[in-house]
Amino acid sequence: MARYKILLTESISQVGIDLLRGKGDVVVAPSPSESDVIPFIKDADALLVRSSRVTSSMMEAGERLKVIGRHGIGTDNIDLSAATRLGIKVVNTPDANTNAVAEHTIWAILHCARNFNKAEKDFRSGVFCRAGSLPGLVQNLGYSTLEICGKTLGLVGMGRIARRVAGIAANCFHMRVKSYDPLVPDKIFAALGVERVYTLDAALERADFISLHLPYSKGVHHLIGERELLLIKPDAYLINTSRGGIIDEEALYRALKEGRLAGAALDVFEEEPPAKDMKLFELDNVLLTPHMAAMTDLALQNMAVDVANGILDVLENRNPKYLVNPEVANFLEGFS
């Protein structure tokens, strides 16, 4: 029996590679760029990607391509309409990093509340190397911080990650949690004790912390823009671990620079990797991390295993657990 050729745009955890090698030959492209992938994809049965772009040109060059595996949740980097048109199934790993991203979100909330960016930087620079007790200096120099107990967390989105965040915030930190998601049934909110709000504005207004948890699509591009930022309390914090394009970064920069927002924590950006001169790098009141919320030891293993299993399910004619484009079946039937 001929072995499958499985092309990776970037390497993944060894446990996933070992699963794939049990059934096929694994090849890693020199880089995720279209020009580096296309020469290797012609005879590939499967393509595995992280967050790099998968274009229609790449898919059309894959004459034997049957499945694209997304190592992660979001599929906005993949031309899904082209994949479906070409009869290529797309699978992802929506459960694998839920806890990792939720933990990162809670850490970001705590980081903002305790002003760790400024406090740690200034402590190292010698600001506190003067007469007096450290606790007294913290208060006298204006470095006292917030407790999140009793504060209001506004969630935009109520999917897997947001539900995990809500559970930790409410049960462990006794925060009041409200959420906006028109697609989720009432019973989900009720089971978690989360207050359901019916507009985006209601999720933003009067919240002490706001966290975004929704997939990217053209419909949510710059969902948080100038108007929405004006609705947020000036002493509130905005957290984004979902997708960069959901926030208008130029509007956010202005709000942070002008003091119309206390702070923000961003793990995702409109341009990834960002340019060296990204304006947000100038500011001390924003925590910036390099799309690392899901990069924990367990999540990396989980994503590798789930994406490998999804790819192998398709190649061996089984129904994959996480099929992103189920409508592809209609296109495949048309050519049978």
Provide a descriptive summary of the structure in words:
With 336 residues, the protein is of the alpha/beta class. The protein folds into two domains: 4-96 and 297-334, Rossmann fold, CATH 3.40.50; 98-288, Rossmann fold (3-Layer(aba) Sandwich). 38% of the residues lie in helices and 15% in strands. The chain has helices at 14-21, 34-41, 56-61, 80-85, 98-113, 116-125, 134-140, 160-173, 186-192, 200-204, 226-231, 249-257, 297-315, 328-334, and strands spanning 4-8, 24-28, 46-49, 67-70, 89-91, 152-156, 176-180, 195-197, 209-212, 237-240, 263-266, 286-288. Strand 4, helix 4 (80-85) and strand 5 form a beta-alpha-beta unit. It is elongated. The two termini are 23 Å apart. The mean pLDDT is 96.
Quick summary:
With 336 residues, the chain is α/β, with parallel strands linked by helices. Helix content is 38%, strand content 15%.
User: How many distinct helices?
Assistant: 14
Q: Class of the largest domain in CATH? A: Alpha Beta
Poorly predicted spans: none
Per the CATH scheme, the topology name of the largest domain is Rossmann fold
